[in-house]
Amino acid sequence: MKYILLGLVLLFSTTFAEETKWIAIGNLQNWYSNTGAEREVGRRGLTSDQQDGLRWPALYNFQDTQAAKALWIGTTNYNDPLAAGKNFAFKVVHNGPRVLNEQSEFMPVEFKYYGKFEHPNVTVDGVPASNIIADDLVDEIDENLVSDRMLYARVNTGIGVTLTRKIYAFSQQNHDNYFIYDYVFKNTGIIDREGTVVNQTLTDVVFYFQYRYAPTREIGPYGFGFAPQSTSWGHSTMNDVRGEDPNSSDPFRAEFSWLGRHSQEAANLIGGPNAAGKGLLGAVQFVGTVVLHADTSPTNSDDDPNQPTTTYYLGSDDAITSDNDQFNSSKMTDEYAAMTRGDAPIRHADAVGDGFADVFGGTPGGYSHAQGFGPYTMAPGDSIHIVLAEGVNGLRRELAYSIGAEWLNGGAFILPDGGTAANADAFKNAWVMTGRDSLFQTFERAIATYQNNLVVPSPPPAPSQFDVNSGGDRITLTWANNAESAPGFVGYKVYRAIQKPDTTYDLIFSCGPGTPNPEIVNEYEDRSPQRGFEYYYYISSFDDGSTNVAHPGVALESSKFFTLTNEPAFLKRPPGKSLSEIRVVPNPFNISAREIQYGITGGANSLKFFNLPPTCRIKIYTERGDLVETIDHLDKSGDEEWKSVTSSRQTVVSGLYIAYIEVLDDDRDEETGKLRFKKGESTFVKFIIIR
Length: 691
Prior knowledge:
The chain is 9% helix and 34% strand. The longest helix has 28 residues, at 424-451. It is globular, with a radius of gyration of 30 Å. Helix 4 runs antiparallel to helix 5 (424-451). It is mainly beta.
């Protein structure tokens, strides 16, 4: 999605047009800015977006865990050509967590989204019906791309450092909950939008990242609101670190967060339980970043185990997080001091302990992660390469329901290790904290992917076309066969949800070797739907596990998000019993009364034919006998819609129209066996359009 910010929104400012794009092909989805960092409410400029992005699991509503990001670049003893040669002891340019100046601090140059393949075309009853159509806006297809998607941004800064950011995303089920960020910071000397170059060696350069995580929107005021307002946007966030000391036994260098306890919540807030509902745990996410690589120096590209040199947590509402200005000497002195603060003697999570995260430290906004890489000396033309991965993991949604329900209603309180908890909170918390191990597994997978040159085994592609069509006694699904030529392909699986798309999906059909339907097909008729319910679907292609190097023999499936429908299919009205029952509704059709006309469900110009035979051909003529449209009604329902347009896509004028309906197939009543409609039978129906 692309949005243009046109003004100031509360404390969040921009002085130029910001462009954003989504990566939305896997279980973790996020928006990204062309400026190189995602500041608070930066996508749409709406306060309700205080938590916006890093959605996991992305199938469900309000799973956002991101509140704000920042990227600052600082140097020392800087002779500033933008300030008439004034020398700053500390010079810092800023992108976030609230302020963004695209005219003179972080100036976008290029922003492009690459795909290894196109996303599928998904329709329900002929209408585009997939989030992927709006979110997966690929600019260019590159079949040689190592990942499924790659987002590229190049940004010049007022300090003369040009950054390029490549974000790699995968749709494979074991790698779709993290992104890999590849940064190159180069001293190009470009300091403004005109491309002015000033060659200057930069000393003590620090690249400083801030992460204000807030698991999750679901529990807060902009979600379902079943926890205190201040809990959800970061006030209760617990922040932890691993690998500060390169000589420790920690397996990686990482920072991660989860929801801690809150002093205003009567219930123990770990996991975000909904005490007023069914016990759903609404904040089971663990979110964070792991360092994959950081150059030792511009002349030594070996990974430096001492980086980052700063991992100190930062008050999210500290003075240095607002009103940032690259010409304010006093402010930049304080900022650079924070950027080079080093490691906390006691990690934030350890300091909070079993206490309340919201009252720790006395800060009104909780704490953010801070990550400073450097200091580096960068002569003109020098570069520094930093690679990070960001991921989210935690309890499966099914467990979030079942563990939460047992916490609320009582039960055996069986712990993950098989033991028994003494009380409901201990039981709940133990299960929630297994999410930390899950996130660590995600970090390990990201590290392995980077070490393997970003090569991840790919599942077969999703069908390039997926169509769902409502009928009178069935819902028919059809799909393309493009996946069948992929290495290891063996079949398809069809999943369905009832009444809403953000819920658990059940497998209702599979075909291919080893399934109940060994023959490969490209159509499935779902005959189990009931009238009055709405149905949502997705289809996946799967292989024989031969390409799964990490888990040989375990099948890989294409991502649900490629074919997930966001419009409902449903059973239409049953067929009529005789040609005499056919009606056109409304009749007359009066455009000026369309708001109150009965039967207008498809738009301002739509008419409906009711009580049709299961299969028939409808030819629509003017009063003079001119044929304006032919409709083949084949879905075996009694309904058909006409949008008042001719076969040449022209809206019809006022007048009397005649519909000639011809039966295409014999049809018998299923209960009595009597012939209701005979092939070749026909009738006429007249109707009036007033425009």
